[in-house]
Amino acid sequence: MLVHFSTNFVFDGKHEEPYVEADEPSPISVYGHSKLEGERRVLETGAHVLLVRTAAVFGGPHSFPQRILDRARSGEKLRVVSDQRVNPTYAEDLAAAALQLVEEGAAGIVHVVARECTGWDDFARAALEEFEVAAPVESVTSAAYPSAARRPLNGCLGTTRFPPLRPWREALHEWAAGLK
């Protein structure tokens, strides 16, 4: 079995609801196009393929909540995008779900993400709360925070093939507890 990980960036973010496995991809960035091309090539191999799409993975030393904490502790001003929504997904939960899917013999495209979506600004505030760091987070639009790659405004994934993982705030709490 071949397990391939992909991203919510294969979608354009124009839907109101979270994207599910049957939704047609339509990337808006070079990164999204390259990920979609990788998906297509993997699926065309004819191998037994499990293609896991996920979003906003955190848990390592360079993931979003850790970078926010580091910036806040160093006194940097925190300007964080508010109009992009994602399912912050804990890496440990994602890994456990992928193993479960492999053990079950799952194949094809499966979305594996945390239950519930949020804006990056609220994700930042939640990370700061976990560590009792008092730092203001200025919510800004994507237009006010230019990025090298366009990102979908609605990056939320839903699933019809696998139960959503636990709520992202619970996972964030566990991640934070492991660092305290």
Any idea what the radius of gyration is? Answer: 17 Å
Largest sheet: spatial strand order: 1-2-7
- The N- to C-terminal Cα distance equals 38 Å
Run of helices and strands: EHEEHEEEHEEEHEEH
Work out the number of β strands: 11
Oligomerization state of this entry? single chain
Average pLDDT figure: 96
Shape: globular
Q: In CATH, what is the homologous superfamily?
A: NAD(P)-binding Rossmann-like Domain
Total separate domains: 1
The appropriate CATH architecture is: 3-Layer(aba) Sandwich
Provide the helix percentage: 25-40%
Number of distinct helices: 5
Major sheet, described briefly?
Answer: 3 strands, parallel
Proportion of beta-strand residues:
15-25%
| Poorly predicted residue ranges | none
- Can you identify the CATH class? Alpha Beta
CATH names the topology as Rossmann fold
Provide an overview of this structure.
The protein is 33% helix and 21% strand. By secondary structure, it is α/β, with parallel strands linked by helices. It has one domain (2-179): NAD(P)-binding Rossmann-like Domain (Rossmann fold, 3-Layer(aba) Sandwich). Strand 1 (2-7), helix 1 (30-43) and strand 2 form a beta-alpha-beta unit. Helix 2 (64-73) crosses helix 4 (120-130). The radius of gyration is 17 Å and the shape is globular. The mean pLDDT is 96.
